[in-house]
């Protein structure tokens, strides 16, 4: 059913859900346009400052999984998949925030100091951050897959376009972060995929 044919109250809910799930990846895509390609002495301040601003934003990507599954899970397969999705979303929020803090804020701050050799300090921070980031991205993939299963069991095949797009985005996210161009395109795919997933239960 097109949004224009919905009742006013339901149309408001649909638009609210679209904003909640698509705003974080759209903002991250915008941030990616200004993300330095590499961490150097000249980009260190921008690198660290950008990741400070992104610290509260990265976890909000998990809203794309949480919002479509809002409510108490049932005692069935869809309910079990919902719980798995929530756990995966929590894991993403925790571990990817670790990446932001370690490889973003800490590495950028350290690299900006004179006399710091990247191989002795910055590279170990990147290795730790990458491990945290991969764990977070894989957790998000698990969350998206579980959410897709839960919504498919409840609402059928109309959730598949959003689910497929999101799984592709999760695969890209494992090593693209928000770097231009692939990271930005990945965030745009998340925005569209989450919107499709959130509105699928309300489409006839």
Oligomer: single chain
The sequence of SSEs as H and E is HHHHHHH
Strand content: under 5%
Portion in helices: over 70%
Put simply, the count of helices is: 7
Any low-confidence stretches, pLDDT <50, length ≥5?
none
Query: N-to-C terminal Cα separation, in Å?
Result: 5 Å
The SS-based structural class is: mainly alpha
Gross morphology = elongated
In words, what does this structure look like?
By secondary structure, the chain is mainly α. It is 71% helix and 0% strand. The chain contains 7 helices and no strands. The longest helix is centred in the middle third of the chain and has 35 residues. The protein is elongated. The relative contact order is 0.16. The mean pLDDT is 91.
Question: Topology, please?
Answer:
Blueprint: H1 8-33, H2 44-54, H3 63-66, H4 77-111, H5 122-155, H6 160-176, H7 182-199
Q: Any key phrases for this structure?
A:
mainly alpha
Short characterization:
By secondary structure, this protein is mainly α.
């Amino acid at each position: 059913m097109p949004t224009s044919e919905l009742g006013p109250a339901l149309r408001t809910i649909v638009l609210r859900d679209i904003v909640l799930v698509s705003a974080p990846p759209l903002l991250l895509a915008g941030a990616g346009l200004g993300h330095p390609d590499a961490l150097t002495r000249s980009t260190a301040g921008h690198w660290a400052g950008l990741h400070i601003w992104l610290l509260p934003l990265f976890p909000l990507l998990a809203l794309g999984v949480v919002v479509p599954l809002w409510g108490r899970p049932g005692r069935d397969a869809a309910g079990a998949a919902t719980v798995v999705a929530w756990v995966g979303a929590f894991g993403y929020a925790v571990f990817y925030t670790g990446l932001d803090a370690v490889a973003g804020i800490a590495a950028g701050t350290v690299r900006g100091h004179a006399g710091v050799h990247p191989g002795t300090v910055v590279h170990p921070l990147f290795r730790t951050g990458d491990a945290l980031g991969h764990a977070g991205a894989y957790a998000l993939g698990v969350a998206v897959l579980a959410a897709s299963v839960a919504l498919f069991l409840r609402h059928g095949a109309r959730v598949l376009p959003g689910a497929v797009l999101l799984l592709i985005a999760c695969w890209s996210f494992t090593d693209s972060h928000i770097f231009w161009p692939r990271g930005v395109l990945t965030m745009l795919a998340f925005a569209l995929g989450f919107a499709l997933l959130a509105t699928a239960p309300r489409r006839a």
